[in-house]
Write a structure and sequence with these properties.
The chain is mostly beta strands and about 280 residues long. About 10% of the residues lie in helices and about 40% in strands. It has 4 helices and 15 strands. It has helices at about 5-10, 35-50, 190-195, 200-205, and strands at about 15, 20-25, 55-65, 70-80, 85-95, 100-110, 130, 145-150, 165-175, 210-215, 220-225, 230-240, 245-255, 260-270, 270. The chain has a 13-stranded antiparallel beta sheet. It is globular and about 55 Å long.
């Protein structure tokens, strides 16, 4: 299977003032399209509607109100406030006639100020020392677009491991990476990677737990820097699972030790279709 092109697949076309349309292929599906990829679609439409090149996304929150399918999508964008230093935007994305997802985001220009990182990069093996992700027993088109190496923790299909701390880390890189002119990955490429948090919960449950999937209820991201390296480290913690939902967080780092983004998510826990 040939890897999909994120740049082509997530570029919506302006239809009218504030309205955009897109035909999303199945290439970015788990069971349904990745919520992170959908957030990337919306951020691109927001950026186009804002039309302020000096302002880049610094934060975004998505809530998912109805399942979204691949195929024709409609995005409606409303610039709530257009400021000289920062602007706020909201948008909805859905299949025609559905409710889909709502996103609010802040775009801001770079300003002079302090530069502090309050976290150290996690100590995990580098990409060339991490182990390749084992062959998947379930076909998920999303993962065909990446090389994936496990830096900390395990997946269901790996035998012989014990439940441990609810922490998981993996290195990922796009097989067909979108690029800015300076060679860096664009911000819209990061949410699809961030939306991969359930394996952290699996570490606390162990390999014998019944297989589940975890549709997103929300996804919030803070964006700090563009990746300057091919590989991106996802360092995920499961914070709490209770009452049929789970809360996780993820830090995204590049190989140079730069914190790129931080994301949190609440997800609904459901049995994998066809499994007891």
């Amino acid at each position: 299977m040939t890897a999909a092109n994120l740049d082509d697949d997530t570029r919506a076309v302006r239809q009218a003032d504030g309205r955009y349309a897109l035909e999303l292929p199945r290439s970015w599906n788990f069971l349904t399209p990745s919520g992170g990829v959908l957030l990337g679609v919306v951020l691109r439409a927001m950026d186009d509607a804002l039309a302020e090149p000096a302002q880049e996304v610094v934060s975004a929150t998505a809530i998912f109100t109805e399942p979204i399918r691949e195929g024709p999508l409609v995005i409606d964008v409303d610039v709530l406030r257009r400021g000289g230093a920062a602007s706020q935007i909201e948008a909805t994305l859905a299949n025609e006639g559905k409710r889909g997802m709502k996103v609010v985001a802040t775009f801001a220009r770079e300003r002079e100020g302090v530069d502090v990182t309050g976290r150290n990069m996690p100590s995990v093996p580098a990409p060339d020392a991490a182990r390749p992700a084992p062959v998947r027993t379930v076909s998920l088109p999303f993962f065909e677009n990446f090389e994936d190496r496990i830096a900390l923790g395990h997946l269901w299909r790996e035998p012989g491991w014990d439940a441990n701390d609810a922490v998981f880390a993996r290195w990922m890189r796009y097989l067909q990476p979108p690029r800015h002119a300076d060679g860096s990955l664009p911000e819209y490429a990061l949410p699809g990677m961030a939306d991969l948090m359930p394996p952290a919960l699996l570490q606390a449950l162990g390999p014998d737990t019944p297989r589940f999937h975890a549709p997103s209820l929300d996804l919030t991201m803070h964006f700090f820097a563009r990746p300057r390296t091919e590989w991106v480290l996802l360092y995920v913690r499961a914070l709490r699972a209770t009452k049929g939902t789970a809360s996780c967080s993820v830090e995204l780092w590049d190989e140079e030790g730069r914190l790129l983004a931080y994301a949190t998510q609440v997800m609904m826990l459901r049995r994998w279709p066809g499994r007891s």
